[in-house]
Every structure is written in C-alpha cells, then in structure tokens.
Fold each of these.
Amino acid sequence: MKICVIGSGYVGLVTGVCFADLGNKVYCVDNDIKKIKNLNSGYIPIFEPGLDELLKRNFISKRILFTTNLKKAVLSSDILFICVGTPITKKGDAANLNYVFQVARSIRKFINKFKVIVTKSTVPVTTGDRIEKIINLKAKKKNFEVVSNPEFLREGEAIRDFRYPDRIVVGTNNKKVIKILENLYAPIINKGAKYFTTSRRGAELIKYASNAFLATKISYINELANLCEKIKVDITDVSVGMGLDKRIGSRFLRAGPAFGGSCFPKDSRALLDTGKKFKTEFSIVKSAVESNEKRRVLLTKRIQEIMSKKFKNKIITFLGVTFKPNTDDMRESTSLTLIPYFLKKGAIIRYYDPSGKKDIFNKYKKVFYYSNISDVCLKSDLIVIHTEWNEFKSIEFRKIVKKKNFKIFDMRGLYSQNLMKKEKINYYCIGK
Ligand code: UGA
C-alpha cells in the first residue's frame, strides 16, 4: 500500500519505518527542511534501539522516502497518518492541537481520490470530529474517512511494540476502512495481535485511559513503597505477590522515582482537562498526578536524610539521568528536580548516562558529565542509581569508588540489600 506519514518525530519515524519494513511504500513528510535533509543523508534525529538499521535497509530499497513535499506525498498515497506532536499547552493541561489542525488544513486541498486519514498522534476525544469538519470545508463530496488509530509505543521498545503489540485499536464505524486497515496490519495481526475496532471517540479515549491507568498503577505502588520503608516490608515482594493475581498483572508495578517521559505526565493531565471540559470528575487520576509531583519532593527529602543534610562540596554521582533506559529523553525525568536541588545545597554533581551528555545541564557550573562508570564513581560521596540501564546492574562499587564511606541510593532496586551489607556498603533503596 502507499502510505503518507506526516510528522517525522518519534511516532512518525517508527511508524513509517515499520510500515516500510512490512513492504509498503512510505512517504515520510516533515516541514523541517533540516530534519528531512538529515534523514536523507542517513542521520536519525532520535535515539531508538534498532531504528537505525531498519531505516537504512528500507531507505536503500526505496520503500521509504523523506520529503518536505506534502502535496506529492498526499496525492500519491491511499492512507495518511497524522503523527505530529500534541504537547501540553503553555496555559494549562490541555493538549496543543495546533499542529494537528494545521495538517488537516494542509492536506484537504490534495484529496484527489478516497483517502483514509488516520490520527496516530495522541489527541483528546472529539479531535477526529474536528479534523473531519476542517477537511469537509473544502472537499466537494466526502471522499475521505478520518480514523483514530492510537499508538502504544514505548520509547526504547518502539520497534518491538510496533511488531508485537497486544492490540491494534482502530476507531471508525466505516466497514470499508476497517477492512483497509486490517489488510495493512495483516502481517502483525497474523502474528497474534488483536485487531480491535470501536468508534472513533472510543479509540481516542482508549489511548488516554490506558496511559492514565498505567500512571495510576505506578503512583499506587510508589505510595505503597513509602509505607514499606516504614514497616520493613520489601516492596518487590508486595509487587510480585500482587502481580501474580492475573486480574492485577505484574507489569507497571515497579516502585521507583516519579514516573516521567513525554507521555504519562502529559496524557494524565490532558485527561483531567477533558474531564473538566465534559464536567466529569477524575479524582483518581488527579490524585495519581499529584502523588507523582509530591514524589519528586519526597525523594529530595530522602536524600537529605541519607546525607544527614551535609551537602557542601559533597560529590553526588548520578548513574543515568534519563527518565528510563534505552532512550535519551530527559522530559519530566526525576533527575531534573534532584540535580538543581542538590546544587543549591552546595553539592557537586557528576553523571554518566549511556545515551550521552545532556545539554540541559550546560547551564550549571558544577554539573560534570563523565563518559564511563569507573571515572564517574571514583571518590563519590553518594551514588544515585537513577535509571535502570543494563550496564548499571553489576557494578563492583567497592573496587571503583575507592573511598571509605561512600553511600549508594538505588532508586531502581537493582542490587540486593544482603549483598551490599556483606560488602559493608552504605546502601539505601526504595520501598525496603
Ligand atoms: C508510555 C506507554 O507505556 C506506551 O504504551 C505509550 O504508547 C507511550 O507512553 C505514549 O503515549 O506514547 P513511555 O512513556 O515510552 O510509554 O514509557 P514507559 O515505559 O511506559 O515508562 C513511563 C514511566 O513509568 C517511566 O518514568 C518509567 O520509569 C516509569 N515506570 C514504568 C515505573 O516507574 N515503574 C514501572 O513499573 C513501569
């Protein structure tokens, strides 16, 4: 099939590359000339394991094309995917839909034959209705169908999530379109993914409901972890014991820092905004969001305790600063709260992250990036294991820190308390 993917950001690139890899002809469009130039010369602007190789393979075999020429791409395609960003608005919690509507206005001139217009961007309920209205303004007769097909791609696991999703959600009542998209997704459905169709508004809501639910699950386990620390119960045992109940499930029950990234915080807040708009109370999601905000502060307090409030010229080392492993994304990462806080208290901050140096810390004089674990840990007073990258899972701290009384705060529960005790390391963790 011929596909046009509008927006070559994270979702657009993964979607485009994966559809091309399934044998389709894909036009990836973006209005950022530099980005398209870079992509055409083999530079990928995002960090996503496996994407590089897949993109190159499909680029060489000309199944994927990068262009700024929206007109040509739309005219040549049967299915258009809208994959532009929907960041939170400056004023409040609502999703900013300007980019989405701009795309709708731009493509309506080029609807020369029947087109399926699919929204993959995370958009609040009723956005599809508004896109349809915008496009209808210019079309002579309704020669298109606007469909919602939300993505459920996790950063760092996006290729795998695209190829082996639990479900493909398609929101439309149009039978012809249900068939067209079923054909497009057939290679994935044949491998076991459930193809689930519902109304367009239903699909839009499923995306927000899923993200807000997972975020709530994390806030829930994080609050239980707070209790566990006071009553000497191990939160990992509680997670396992709960997760064994199939109705609950074991995933997204790992206690840790505040949840971050570009999706959970943003989408939970956007769902609250939708609730307001339709005069429906979302007290549970509201609490989960508040709980997550409080968690950032709570963790600064925990580190104060660990350091007995002595920070002046102490070396605090962060292993990992991104919000999770296998990504270079810093958005809403807990490190962004912790690092400035401890700088203010007079500490010196070092960090190492496998995804590289972060420009966001350039403004601080006392934040230093190191390019390997041994150097960054040497002579540290406190090591904060912030992100669960694999390479942080079996470090011989005693050998590399070379300091008598260093401390470790393991926010991801990567090490065994008993082992640390045996090695006489001052070890602190979450929920134990
Ligand atoms: C999330 C969803 O998982 C995807 O299904 C969705 O498509 C995506 O948002 C999106 O809306 O685009 P992502 O933000 O990439 O994906 O990251 P997750 O792996 O879900 O992790 C989110 C946050 O939760 C991270 O800060 C992570 O450390 C935290 N987390 C996750 C926990 O603290 N505990 C857990 O058990 C799981």
Amino acid sequence: MSPFTCVLGSGHAVPPRILTNAELEQMVDTSEEWIIERCGIRQRHIAAPGSALSDLATQAAQQALSAAEVAAADIDMIIVATVTGDMKFPAMACLIQEKLQADNAAAFDVSAACSGFLYSLHLADSLMRTSGYRHILVIAAEMLSSMVNWQDRNTCVLFGDGAGAVVLGRSDGSNGLLSTYVKSDGRHHKLLFNPGGSQHPPSHETIDNQLATINMAGREVFRHAVVSMTDALNAALEQAGLTSADIDLLIPHQANIRIIEGIGKRCKIPADKVYVNVDRYGNTSAASVPIALNEAWRGGRISSGDIVALVTFGAGLTWSACIIRF
Ligand code: UT7
C-alpha cells in the first residue's frame, strides 16, 4: 500500500460582501496607495454581521466533498483550523459536522492562527498513517472581521474572511503529502495576539479598552514571517528529499505581497511559480492557503505529478510547511 496521504478534493467559500480600500479610506487615516504599495491588497471579503462562519465553512467542505466524490457519511474525522469559531465552545467542527450530516466522524478544532491549516494537515497525515481512518476532512475558516479593531489602521486594512477545505484519503500511488513541518516560538506571542479570553472575560471595560481585538507589532511580525517561512520551507523540502528547484508551485500564506516576494527571493523560486491572491482576499488567516490551493487547482495551475509547496506563518508565533505531489 502507498505510504502517502493524498488530497482527494478541495473547496473554498468567501462571503459576497467586498470591502474596498476606498471604503477603508472613509473609516481610518489610510490611503488606497499605501495599502496597495505596502501590502498588495486591493479588496477583501467581509461576512455580514450576525452570519455564521460555520455556514461558510460548510459550503467550502461540501465543495471539497463533491470534488473528492466522498459522501459526508464516509468522513471519519473533521478537523477545523480556526481562531474565530461561531462560539467559544463547542468546537466549530461539531457545528459543521451537524450541517454536513457527517454522522460517523469525530470532530474538533485546532488553534494555531494563520498556521492552523498546515498544523491540521500535519495532524491528519499522522492520524491517517497510524489509525484505520479512510477519509479526514480538514477545514480552515476565519472571520477575523469579528475581532478587528476598525479604528486601528495598522491592522484593519489587512484582514478578510473566508474558508477553505480539503478531503484527505489514502493514496494508491506516489502522489500525496511527502512531508509536513510544524514549529512555534511562544516567546514572541505578544507580537500578534487578541487578549480577549478567560483572563479578560467580556465586560464593559474589556470592550471600552479594545481587549477583545487584534494587536500586532507589524514590522517585527514581518521580519519573523520571512525568516520562519523560509526555514519551514527548507525543512519540509529536506524531509521530502527535494530542493526548491523541484517546486512547480509555491502557495505561501497570503498576508502581504512583500512577504511573499521576500520568500520567493530567499528560496530562489521565480515569481511565475508563486501563487498570489492577497490582492483579492487580504489575509484570511488559516483559510488563506486552502483558498489559494483550491483556486490554483481548479484554475489549472496544478497538474498531475506537480510538486506543490505550502508554507504559513502566524500568531504564536507558529510556522509550518507541507510538500505535496499531486
Ligand atoms: O498573518 C499573520 C502575520 N501577519 C503578517 O504577516 C503581517 C506582517 N506585517 C506587515 O505586513 C506589515 O508590517 C504591515 C503591512 C502591517 C505594515 O507595513 P510596514 O511597512 O511594516 O509599516 P510600519 O508598521 O513600519 O509603519 C510605517 C508607517 C507608520 O507611520 P510612521 O510612524 O512612519 O509615520 C505607520 O503608522 O506607516 C503607517 N501606517 C499606515 N499608513 C497608512 C500603518 N498602517 C497604515 C495604514 N495606512 N493603514
């Protein structure tokens, strides 16, 4: 039997409402030029107030199941990467399980911020190898618009909402996940965090003091992002016995075009082999890589046999990479 876990199908969904840079100009002291030049973002999709992220995630999952030709009843496990689930508990994975009627699965969430999707793939791959599971549904979904401080120009221009999903199964050949790599460094957790939690439960004071919104030291995070994603990519490549010259398509976390270009340069991967959609979605946190993967696959950017490298970075700090042969 092939030793590999493979991606059988993928899907993604974003809310219909588009928030433009011109609209942000009306909300904070920023400019269209600054956002495009410093971040490469032209627009982002934002969920309607009161809407459920689990609905968006379910749409992405249904698309992935349909592409994989796997019935919801045949899913053994649902792993959802998110830091913005519908509720504090239960896990959003359980809400999605109900919506999908995936009654034979076990379901739980993973909290690793922007790296959550690749952390989940790492976990799912290990479980596929060591358990009798046949299909694992991995979803990454975020509604960061729900925890953005809309008066803070340092962060509110960056983020968007969305969901991506993949169905994993057992490969019957040489295609599949060749390697996964995960790493974190909690010493830097104060560079990017949302303090709203059990230490600061909801109160008038926490709302007034913006204690339930995103705080980020952008410049420092930027520096760590380029170095860490380069390290993760090199580690995953080495584990797979490959070099960056073998990569047909690099799908990096979509946080900032300058970070994406920095990684391409450091890893010597030409721009035409690097997937970019940050201009259309902004930073959708954990959902960013699976949204891009689904777009690239459905858009014909990935062919059978291609080596695709995924790499992410986020709060924690966390970083991760995965090499897949399609
Ligand atoms: O997904 C998880 C990881 N997150 C990231 O990867 C984000 C990483 N960081 C970044 O992408 C960038 O650091 C930012 C886009 C957040 C900021 O870009 P930067 O080039 O690092 O800007 P900066 O923070 O060094 O700020 C430069 C200037 C400052 O003004 P002064 O102090 O030089 O007068 C900021 O106040 O730009 C100002 N600024 C803005 N100006 C217009 C910050 N945000 C804005 C804005 N519009 N929205």
